[in-house]
Amino acid sequence: MKILEDRIRRDGRVRDGGVLKVDGFLNHQMDIALFSDMGKEFYRIFGDRRVNKILTIEASGIGIACLTAQQFGCPVVFAKKTQTKNISGEVYTTSVRSFTHDRVYDIIVSKEFLTPADRVLIIDDFLANGCALMGLVRLVRDAGAQLVGAGIAVEKAFQPGGELIRGMGVEVASLARIKAMDPVRGVEFC
Amino acid sequence: MKILEDRIRRDGRVRDGGVLKVDGFLNHQMDIALFSDMGKEFYRIFGDRRVNKILTIEASGIGIACLTAQQFGCPVVFAKKTQTKNISGEVYTTSVRSFTHDRVYDIIVSKEFLTPADRVLIIDDFLANGCALMGLVRLVRDAGAQLVGAGIAVEKAFQPGGELIRGMGVEVASLARIKAMDPVRGVEFC
């Protein structure tokens, strides 16, 4: 998606250690007009697939998910991160490893809001190692819901997540796929 | 706001201990069409006040903030919760007590995204004890930004937060103000 790639080139900053800072428009300050355009693009890709629910994960996926859901005319469910195992049986839960924060946390979704009747599009801001996305895929499968696909804003295609998850048979559509990046040379897209 | 009150009456559940469950449409599964109507109502109230930034706090404020920002044509900044003090000087930070989770956490906003040039509308889903909202007010004031007001979805008017924050001179507009609630009798609005 050209406008997102252009925006990353203009306002993104590459830091040492494979960090891409896009907090001016994507995951701290959020450009809602851009998110709306991204939602339209996800609808162009997945709009004929009878999606009735968008699933995302707190916190930075929520904004993009909401503007995408507006296109699909459906609700958003966001998985919550928790460090305490919920054993009440009222939720689907799975463990996710965070490389960024070097820890493992559980994510949960209430069983009430993810059911076999649902046709789910997962939306998230980043795909790198794929741990969060894989956790969301597990929640959808545990619920017996139909997974339509995953819409990602920025995929670091030089990290293994995208290949892993596509290898599981999940249709992943990333609006900007980064082939390589470097603090000096900047970002190169696929 | 009648449609929000009606929705709370229909789909909200009052639990013991002053807990109102609205996770079917507000803070776990999110009704985007309802959020858009709420955004229009906030615009009706604050639309002539030259708001150029919406400030909220992760995670459940983000959806309402995004749909409200769409009405105002401005970006959203969400304060991040963290348990590790950031001492780099690049952020505004303040401590917030959570009664729900019985702990204290820090919230941070990058100095880059909150400046004296900003006219800020705070948006959040709940106002009860007012700790989170007061933290956001402090961040706005620390930044030297102009605080236009605060738009809240659901205010528990029987708890002290609303009175405290209005007493600080902040204009608070709550779309549903709960006077009393009880698992048997349900919700009574102001």
Q: Which geometry of chain A do the CA atoms define?
A: globular
Task: Describe the strand arrangement of the main beta sheet of chain A, using strand numbers.
Answer: 6-7-5-4-8-9-10-11
- CATH topology of chain A, which one? Rossmann fold
What multimeric state do the chains show? homodimer
Task: Tally the beta strands of chain A.
Answer: 11
Structural class assignment of chain A: alpha/beta
- What number of domains of chain A? 1
Kindly estimate the percentage of residues of chain A that lie in beta strands according to DSSP.
35-45%
Residues in helix, % of chain A: 25-40%
Topology of chain A as a string of helices (H) and strands (E):
HEEEHEHEEEEHEHEE
Largest sheet of chain A: 8 strands, mixed
CA gyration radius of chain A, whole angstroms: 16 Å
**Annotated CATH architecture of chain A:** 3-Layer(aba) Sandwich
Could you tell me the mean pLDDT of chain A? 95
Distance between the termini of chain A: 11 Å
**What is the C-level CATH assignment of chain A?**
Alpha Beta
Ranges of chain A with pLDDT <50 over ≥5 residues? none
Largest interface: A-B, 30 and 30 residues
Count of helical regions of chain A: 5
